[in-house]
Amino acid sequence: MGARRAALPALERTERAAAATARLLALPELANVAGRTIAGYVAVQGELDPAAALEHAGARGCKVALPRVSREAPRLRFHEVTPGAALSASPGSFGLLEPDAAWPELAMGDLDVVIVPGVAFDAEGRRLGFGGGYYDGALAIARARANGRTALIGIAYDFQIVDDCPAGEGDVPVDLVVTDARVLRRAASRAAGEGG
Fold this sequence. Notes:
There is one protein chain. It contains five helices and ten strands. It starts with a helix and ends with a helix. With 196 residues, it is α/β, with parallel strands linked by helices. It has an eight-stranded mixed β-sheet. It has a two-stranded antiparallel sheet with strand order 6-7. The chain is globular and about 40 Å long. 26% of the residues lie in helices and 18% in strands. Helix 2 runs parallel beside helix 3.
């Protein structure tokens, strides 16, 4: 998946990201974002880029956060991004561009929406990351501290959707996956939405 993603021509990558962004911004989870907090990521290695969606949400009065790798648990922390401010000049852990450590760190329970990258996803929200457990650790804390109100949204190219994604006991599923072609809501999320 990683090789296929990285091999996408730049124009196709841009077009697919635009299609996924339109679907993402049309979700009820992103309606009325003013005063809410959305966390995303900086795309690397051909990942579908959520930058346009984050910029749009920020322009609508949403607080935007990006991840920073930490040596202490949780190993992934989210810092508020100042509009127009540049990310770190030199890549941090794993070659990632990160927010400045001095920017305000946001509590995991204060995140209303987390846009999550992955190598692969399935229709039940299971995801395959890079194997370090960084996102799973952070997402578990967000879910627990926010009493389930944090929406976890995977975003990927449609070819990254597989029939059955391997998942272990500590893996945290996303509520839905947005691709350039469709939106997949996992059954547990659909049932919770219908009941309340």
